[in-house]
Amino acid sequence: MKTRLIVALAGLTLCFGAQANDAASVHATNAWIRVLPGTLPAGGYVDFANDSDHTLKIVDTDSPAYGHAMLHRSSTDGGMGRMEMLKSVDLPAKSTTKFAPGGYHVMLMDAGKPVKAGDTVVVNFHLADGSVLPVNFVARPANANGPKD
Protein backbone atom coordinates (compact mmCIF):
# COMPACT_ATOMS: atom_id res chain seq x y z
CA MET A 1 0.00 0.00 0.00
CA LYS A 2 2.79 2.44 0.92
CA THR A 3 4.62 1.62 -2.30
CA ARG A 4 1.54 2.45 -4.40
CA LEU A 5 1.09 5.74 -2.56
CA ILE A 6 4.73 6.71 -3.08
CA VAL A 7 4.55 5.83 -6.79
CA ALA A 8 1.30 7.80 -7.18
CA LEU A 9 2.75 10.86 -5.42
CA ALA A 10 5.92 10.68 -7.50
CA GLY A 11 3.82 10.55 -10.66
CA LEU A 12 1.78 13.56 -9.60
CA THR A 13 4.95 15.48 -8.79
CA LEU A 14 6.30 14.80 -12.27
CA CYS A 15 3.04 15.87 -13.90
CA PHE A 16 2.79 19.12 -12.01
CA GLY A 17 6.50 19.84 -12.33
CA ALA A 18 6.35 19.45 -16.10
CA GLN A 19 3.38 21.78 -16.42
CA ALA A 20 4.53 24.45 -13.99
CA ASN A 21 7.22 25.94 -16.19
CA ASP A 22 5.61 27.28 -19.34
CA ALA A 23 7.69 30.44 -18.82
CA ALA A 24 10.78 28.43 -19.87
CA SER A 25 9.25 28.10 -23.37
CA VAL A 26 8.78 31.85 -23.82
CA HIS A 27 11.56 34.22 -24.85
CA ALA A 28 11.14 37.98 -24.57
CA THR A 29 13.05 40.41 -26.80
CA ASN A 30 12.93 44.12 -27.68
CA ALA A 31 11.38 45.07 -24.32
CA TRP A 32 10.96 48.80 -23.84
CA ILE A 33 8.79 51.29 -21.99
CA ARG A 34 7.62 54.61 -23.37
CA VAL A 35 7.93 57.00 -20.42
CA LEU A 36 5.54 59.95 -20.47
CA PRO A 37 5.92 63.20 -18.51
CA GLY A 38 4.88 63.54 -14.88
CA THR A 39 2.60 60.88 -13.46
CA LEU A 40 1.09 59.79 -16.79
CA PRO A 41 1.02 55.99 -17.32
CA ALA A 42 3.82 54.33 -19.27
CA GLY A 43 3.31 51.76 -22.02
CA GLY A 44 5.39 48.57 -22.09
CA TYR A 45 6.15 46.81 -25.37
CA VAL A 46 7.89 43.48 -26.02
CA ASP A 47 8.06 40.54 -28.45
CA PHE A 48 7.21 37.11 -26.99
CA ALA A 49 8.38 33.99 -28.85
CA ASN A 50 6.55 30.84 -27.74
CA ASP A 51 8.77 27.86 -28.63
CA SER A 52 6.36 25.27 -27.23
CA ASP A 53 3.92 23.06 -29.11
CA HIS A 54 0.87 24.56 -27.39
CA THR A 55 -0.71 27.95 -26.83
CA LEU A 56 0.40 29.62 -23.60
CA LYS A 57 -1.58 32.28 -21.77
CA ILE A 58 -0.40 35.39 -19.92
CA VAL A 59 -2.95 35.92 -17.14
CA ASP A 60 -1.43 38.74 -15.10
CA THR A 61 1.47 41.14 -14.88
CA ASP A 62 3.16 43.20 -12.18
CA SER A 63 6.25 45.30 -11.66
CA PRO A 64 8.13 46.22 -8.49
CA ALA A 65 8.67 49.68 -10.04
CA TYR A 66 4.95 50.40 -10.52
CA GLY A 67 1.90 50.19 -8.29
CA HIS A 68 -0.27 48.85 -11.13
CA ALA A 69 0.53 46.86 -14.28
CA MET A 70 -2.28 45.77 -16.60
CA LEU A 71 -2.61 43.96 -19.90
CA HIS A 72 -4.21 46.24 -22.52
CA ARG A 73 -4.95 46.34 -26.23
CA SER A 74 -5.36 49.46 -28.35
CA SER A 75 -7.36 49.34 -31.56
CA THR A 76 -9.13 51.56 -34.05
CA ASP A 77 -12.77 51.01 -34.97
CA GLY A 78 -14.49 53.29 -37.48
CA GLY A 79 -11.74 55.86 -37.12
CA MET A 80 -12.11 55.96 -33.34
CA GLY A 81 -9.25 54.81 -31.14
CA ARG A 82 -10.06 52.66 -28.15
CA MET A 83 -8.21 50.83 -25.43
CA GLU A 84 -9.44 47.81 -23.50
CA MET A 85 -8.11 46.07 -20.42
CA LEU A 86 -7.57 42.34 -20.98
CA LYS A 87 -7.84 39.43 -18.56
CA SER A 88 -5.29 37.43 -20.56
CA VAL A 89 -3.26 37.29 -23.76
CA ASP A 90 -2.70 34.08 -25.71
CA LEU A 91 0.76 33.26 -27.03
CA PRO A 92 0.16 30.82 -29.92
CA ALA A 93 2.48 27.83 -30.32
CA LYS A 94 5.65 28.22 -32.38
CA SER A 95 5.04 31.91 -33.06
CA THR A 96 5.86 35.42 -31.91
CA THR A 97 3.30 37.74 -30.32
CA LYS A 98 4.20 41.42 -30.42
CA PHE A 99 3.24 43.96 -27.79
CA ALA A 100 3.61 47.18 -29.80
CA PRO A 101 2.18 50.70 -30.00
CA GLY A 102 -1.36 50.49 -31.38
CA GLY A 103 -1.86 46.90 -30.18
CA TYR A 104 -1.12 44.79 -27.13
CA HIS A 105 0.83 46.53 -24.37
CA VAL A 106 1.36 46.65 -20.63
CA MET A 107 -0.10 49.75 -18.98
CA LEU A 108 2.18 50.77 -16.10
CA MET A 109 0.79 53.21 -13.54
CA ASP A 110 1.83 54.75 -10.22
CA ALA A 111 5.62 54.55 -10.43
CA GLY A 112 7.19 54.14 -7.00
CA LYS A 113 9.88 56.63 -8.03
CA PRO A 114 10.33 58.57 -11.28
CA VAL A 115 11.39 56.37 -14.20
CA LYS A 116 13.57 58.16 -16.74
CA ALA A 117 14.93 57.28 -20.17
CA GLY A 118 17.77 54.78 -19.85
CA ASP A 119 16.46 53.13 -16.68
CA THR A 120 15.79 49.39 -16.60
CA VAL A 121 12.49 48.21 -15.13
CA VAL A 122 11.46 44.61 -14.42
CA VAL A 123 7.96 43.52 -15.45
CA ASN A 124 6.78 40.05 -14.40
CA PHE A 125 4.42 38.12 -16.67
CA HIS A 126 2.35 35.43 -14.93
CA LEU A 127 1.36 32.46 -17.08
CA ALA A 128 -1.71 30.26 -16.64
CA ASP A 129 0.38 27.36 -15.30
CA GLY A 130 1.60 29.52 -12.39
CA SER A 131 5.08 30.17 -13.76
CA VAL A 132 6.45 33.71 -13.97
CA LEU A 133 8.55 35.27 -16.72
CA PRO A 134 10.51 38.32 -15.49
CA VAL A 135 11.45 40.68 -18.32
CA ASN A 136 13.86 43.64 -18.19
CA PHE A 137 12.42 46.67 -19.99
CA VAL A 138 14.52 49.69 -21.00
CA ALA A 139 12.82 53.05 -20.47
CA ARG A 140 12.71 55.22 -23.59
CA PRO A 141 11.59 58.86 -24.00
CA ALA A 142 8.03 59.84 -24.93
CA ASN A 143 8.95 60.35 -28.61
CA ALA A 144 10.48 56.87 -29.02
CA ASN A 145 9.01 54.47 -31.57
CA GLY A 146 10.95 51.39 -30.56
CA PRO A 147 13.52 49.92 -28.20
CA LYS A 148 16.56 51.43 -29.91
CA ASP A 149 15.61 54.56 -31.85
UniProtKB/TrEMBL annotation:
Superkingdom classification of source: Bacteria
Keyword Signal: yes
SUPFAM superfamilies cross-referenced by the UniProt entry: DR1885-like metal-binding protein
Signal sequence segment: 1-20
Keywords: Signal
Transmembrane segments: none
One Pfam family here: PCuAC
Protein name: Copper(I)-binding protein
Keyword Signal: yes
